[in-house]
Amino acid sequence: QQQQQQQHFEQPPGILPSHLHNSRPTVHSEGHFDAGDADDADDDDDDDDDQDEFDLEAESEEEEADDGLLPVERQSRRIERQRAKDLKLAEAELQTNIEDSERFVLPSGQEIQKIGSESEDLAVVHMRIKDNLSTLLNFKEKRDPNRARSEYIRLLTRDLAFYYGYSEYMVTRMLELFPLSEVSEVLEANEVQRPVTIRTNTLKTRRRDLAQALINRGVNLQPVGDWTKVGLVVFEASVPLGATPEYLAGHYILQSASSMLPVMALAPQPNEKVLDMAAAPGGKTTHIAALMKNTGLVVANDATKARTKSLTANIHRLGATNAIVCNYDGREFPKVMGSFDRVLLDAPCSGTGVIAKDQSVKTSKTELDFQRCSKLQKELILAAIDSVDARSKSGGYIVYSTCSIMVDENEGVIDYALKHRHVKLVPTGLELGKPGFTKFREKRFDASLSLTRRFYPHTHNMDGFFVAKLKKLSNEIPKKEKDAVNDVLAVQQPKANGTAKGQQQQQQKSQKSQPQKKQPNGENLKHVQKKSKVVVSEEAAPAPAQQQGKKQQKLQKPEQQKQQQQQQQ
Q1: Is 106 exposed, middle or buried (0-12, 13-18, 19+ CB in 10 A)?
Q2: Shortest CA distance to 293 belongs to which of 264, 315, 276, 271?
Q3: Phi-psi sector, 319: left (phi>0), alpha (psi -120 to 50), beta
Q4: pLDDT at residue 542 greater than cutoff 50
Q5: In a 3-state reduction of DSSP, which class is residue 470?
Q6: Whole-angstrom Cα distance, residue 507 to residue 503?
Q7: Helix (H, G, I), strand (E, B) or coil at 411
Q8: Which DSSP state fits 229?
Q9: In this predicted model, which residue has the larger pLDDT, 116 or 308?
Q10: Angle, nearest 10°, between helix axes 149-164 and 180-189?
Q11: What number is the average pLDDT over the span 370-377?
């Protein structure tokens, strides 16, 4: 470098260095080069040599600028320049490697057999999931032309099931429900516990006073959000939240944020008659009582008798004096009690929205489980609609909610209710949440299902939930439903007649099967035979009065059947 600097400074001021002089060849009008120009053109072809010379020139200029600095400062500047140069080279090399490995190659042969085995490295599986997702998101450019998209999806399903501990069936349902860009986020969110939330009992305290009391006990908390005035989220607590004096006094209840949404959508008013069809353990029931300010009537029903104990305990602890606890099957409730202003149905479901709480859902659920849940939910929502009085001045509303994210248990059930009862969907009044599906794969639902709301763990940081609000228009059941009920009764009636005839035939058979009396020996045999003939002839020949009675019964039977059918209609 010093020699080059000396050569540079020894040259006259008007002359460029030799490696920069005549760097471009001159072309004559005939279109050929001069000999000297051709030599210079050969030098230009070597880009690396030119770049090195320019770098040396730049370094010499930088060193000239450092002449006025101390030796230590010069050395520091030199080290910084070298470090910047190394970083540029590393970035260029990394970019080259990325371009080389841009295309994802599907495994084949023995690699396929290793997929899903316990010996497979999770880090390798995770990297393969990322590469596969990036390929599927830009499939036209990154695909292997010899492989179909279904092969990539099949590999992704197996890898996700192995990495996150799901059954392949459940991963397939998740891939159907969410776009590929969100699937990994959903599965990751199900691995993390939701924040602990509590609901203030406004019958006994205010949220501000409760928050101050808990902060004094070493609890770190803040409001859940602007959408609720009673919710608090707890980050840290030095005391158990289920054993504080405030908890025992009924100032708050441990309740998830998503469980507050159905009651907010129901919006019960004071002095109304409200039914909570599946009430245990009582978080929603006591919330309804607090909104009604302990006026009116709240009927808290649960089909499982063992769960009514916790329901009763929470009602007593929180001071809800307008609640009644009962134990009936929700499907039979219209026969027990009716004419409610509002009904809340938090239906039993598969629990696919609360996988973070119950990890068994990952592998235990099958297609049959979802079909059973959907069937039960359809029966319950019809019973809930029948329990509401459409003529209510302030009500006539039904809120349906589940802790599931599956379409079969949510939009499918609401669409079924719209077709079988005189109801319509109305806005839930909730500020957050995604609209429900109006179409899903090959299924098409009513356009008003966009008024329903869906909540997901990865977007709202709460349990997966679904909320829909219905308004009852008429107490009459559609004609199709009436015809179906009459058909069932008509089928049951001939069965009853058939059973009566069968009983008569069984009695006759039993009489024939009775053992005959032993015949006496000796001379009395003839005498006994004569008597038995007379008795048999008397029994065989019916009396004229009996014959007339039987004829009258035969004539009366069709008339009775007509009367019974009219009464049933």
Answers
A1: middle
A2: 271
A3: left
A4: no
A5: strand
A6: 6
A7: helix
A8: S
A9: 308
A10: 10
A11: 96
Alpha helices in 190-267 (DSSP H): 207-216, 245-248, 261-266
Token pair listed for 532: 């038995």
With H, G, I as helix, E, B as strand and everything else as coil, classify residue 102.
coil
CA-nearest of 297, 226, 288 to 260 is 288
Identify the helix (H) or strand (E) that includes residue 479. helix 479-513
Respond yes or no on whether the N-terminal peptide bond of residue 457 is cis (omega within 30° of 0): no
| Strand pairing report for 453-455 and 443-444 | unpaired
Both tokens assigned to 119 = 């010996």
C-alpha distance across the termini of the chain, in Å: 111
Helices 2-10 + 47-65 axis angle, to 10: 80
Nearest of 260, 271, 280, 324 to residue 463 by alpha carbon: 260
Q: How far is residue 502 from each of residues 279, 310, 491, measured CA to CA in Å?
A: 46, 50, 17
pLDDT interval class at 271 (50, 70, 90): very high
Please indicate whether residue 458 or residue 519 has the higher confidence score (pLDDT): 458
- Is 373 a catalytic site residue? no
pLDDT at 504: 55
Which pLDDT band, with edges at 50, 70 and 90, does 452 fall under? very high
CB proximity list for 187: less than 8 A, separation 6 or greater: 160, 164, 166, 174
Q: How far apart are CA 219 and CA 233, in angstroms?
A: 10
Q: What distance in Å separates the CA atoms of residue 74 and residue 80, rounded to the nearest whole number? A: 10
DSSP codes joined into one string, 327-383: ---GGGHHHH---BSEEEEE-----TT-TTT-TTHHHH--HHHHHHHHHHHHHHHHH
- At 405, list the tokens: 């994210």
Q: Indicate whether 50 pLDDT > 90.
A: no
Comparing C-alpha atoms, which of 453, 440, 400 is closest to residue 423?
Answer: 400
Q: Other CB atoms closer than 10 Å to residue 448's CB: what's the count?
A: 16
pLDDT tens figures, 403-432? 999 999 999 999 999 999 999 999 999 989
Range of lowest pLDDT (13-17, 365-369, 442-446): 13-17
Are the C-beta atoms of 265 and 257 separated by less than 8 Å? no
Give the whole-angstrom CA distance, residue 408 versus residue 84: 59
Task: Compute and round to an integer the Cα radius of gyration of the chain.
Answer: 42
Between the alpha carbon of residue 444 and those of residues 29, 393, 411, 431, the distances in Å are 76, 34, 10, 26
